[in-house]
Amino acid sequence: LPDRTRTGHKGSYGHVVVLGGSPGFTGAAVMTAEAALRAGAGLVTCAVPEHSETAVASRLLEAMTASFSADDPRVAMRDLEEPLSRADVVALGPGLGRGEGTVQLVREVVSWVDRVHGPLMVVDADGLNAVAGDPDIFSCGSLRGRVVLTPHPGEMARLMKCSTAEVLSDRCGIACEAAKASAGVVVLKGAPSITSVPSGETWVNSTGNPGLATGGSGDVLTGIIAAFLAQGVKPLPAAVSGTYLHGMAADLAAGDVDMRSMLPRDVIECVPEAIDGLEWK
Predict the structure, then answer these.
(1) Rounded average pLDDT over 222-233
(2) What angle do CA 201, 205, 206 make, to 5 degrees?
(3) For residues 268 and 250, is the Cβ–Cβ distance under 8 A?
């Protein structure tokens, strides 16, 4: 990570926009935003459907909020152009929902980012589900090489049009295939998590524990990777080091909380200690 200088300010360390948080799933966007802040992003905005903004704003003290229309994807895209134009990174998908309108909105966001050579992207959860079977949507134009995908095995199966059993039987192979198809960096979450790039190179993560086997852990990872990208780390090292740090924070949390009782918020609280324990070169 870049050094913090005495003359640095919030604009020096990047702006992450988290796009998600539909009613009933606001926690996903909140955890992504909190993780991004703990991992060093200078500014974070949570962009959520209009009916979710009050709930999200009441839970986030340090992040900003923005809202978009929940009824019409075209109107929603117009609402989002202003916050997205200020972003260095967009974390697309945490708790966004899986309706037909979401699919159209995700595709419009991806198209807009490509057209304006917009922010880097971390795509997770419902952002991935919206492009199921179409990983090459990220492989052309200005998106090429500027996107990190973070699927779990079920999301990977939908993305690559195969079964979850096929993913689990060849995790390294399918991660490489997805990286080639998307021309991006792919983090296939699991035990252990695997990061692949289109060349076929693969990194197997060495940190983490079963305490991460709970809803919301992936949202924390998305926020950490987005924060690293916002601070100027390139997509591959952001994905590899973000995955490593996420697992390290979970390992530290396991020193205080039984893994059966661990929550994503316990992991977020240990991110500062994990960062402090690393020597950044």
Answers:
(1) 98
(2) 140
(3) no
Report the number of secondary-structure helices (H) and strands (E) in the chain: 11, 9
As a whole number of angstroms, the distance between CA 257 and CA 264 comes to 12
pTM more than 0.85: yes
Distance CA 227, CA 40 (A): 6
CB 231 within 8 A of CB 11: no
Structure tokens at 155: 């999301």
- Tell me the pLDDT tens digit for each residue of 136-168: 999 999 999 999 999 999 999 999 999 999 999
Number of CB atoms found within 10 A of residue 104's CB: 16
Nearest CA to 246 among 229, 226, 263, 270?
A: 270
DSSP-assigned letters across all residues of 171-192: HHHHHHHHHHHHTSEEEE-SSS
Structure tokens at 183: 């021309």
User: Is the preceding omega at residue 192 within 30 degrees of 0, hence cis?
Assistant: yes
How far are the Cα atoms of 41, 124, 195, 214, 234 from residue 139, in angstroms, in the given order? 26, 17, 17, 31, 17
CA distances from 31 to 16, 18, 140 (A): 13, 10, 31
Q: List Cβ<8 Å contacts ≥24 apart for 175-181.
A: 175/202, 176/200, 176/202, 178/135, 178/149, 178/151, 181/135, 181/136, 181/139
Q: How many CB atoms lie within 10 A of CB 101?
A: 17
Percent of the chain at pLDDT > 90 equals: 94
Provide the pLDDT for residue 259: 97
Beta strands per DSSP E along 124-235: 147-149, 185-188, 194-196, 202-204
